[in-house]
Amino acid sequence: MNSNLVFNIAYGIHMLGILALLHGFFSQMSKENKGIHVTMIYGAITQLVTGIVMSAAKSGSDQPVNSTWLAVKFLVAAIILVVALLGKKATGDTKKYWLIVGVLTGFNLLFAFAVDLFK
């Protein structure tokens, strides 16, 4: 299969993952007891898996790969997943987990756009 096709399919699924994370975050915003929505976990898993697929597809093409950018994105996505899993299992006040996942998701989005703008 063509690496560009694989990249584009993974990119589309990657966007669904970010939408799942944002849906989980915003769906909890109006609630008094904020917590980790299950879509946040599914979104984080989707982000990690499709990010790995996209980086592999890009390294298989003749386009340059920014290793530092990939490392930061992967690290933040991994932290999001760990915090989401910890928050889902936590009892009591889980607002801090919800907030950390939301802030890191926003950071990951802004980082992706900023790096793309300043190429």
Show the helix and strand layout.
Layout lengths: L2 H27 L8 H22 L7 H23 L5 H23 L2
Describe the structure.
There is one protein chain. Helix content is 80%, strand content 0%. It contains 4 helices and no strands. It has 119 residues and is mainly alpha-helical. It has helices spanning 3-29, 38-59, 67-89, 95-117.
What is the residue-averaged pLDDT? 92
Number of domains: 1
Based on DSSP secondary structure assignment, what is the total number of beta strands? 0
Query: Percent range for helical residues?
Result: over 70%
Strand composition percent: under 5%
Poorly predicted regions are: none
Shape: elongated
- Give the distance, in angstroms, between the N- and C-terminal Cα atoms: 28 Å
Derived from helix and strand composition plus strand pairing, the structural class reads: mainly alpha
Summarize the structure.
80% of the residues lie in helices and 0% in strands. The protein is an all-alpha fold and 119 residues long. The radius of gyration is 15 Å and the shape is elongated.
Q: Keyphrases for this structure?
A:
119 residues, mainly alpha, 80% helix, elongated
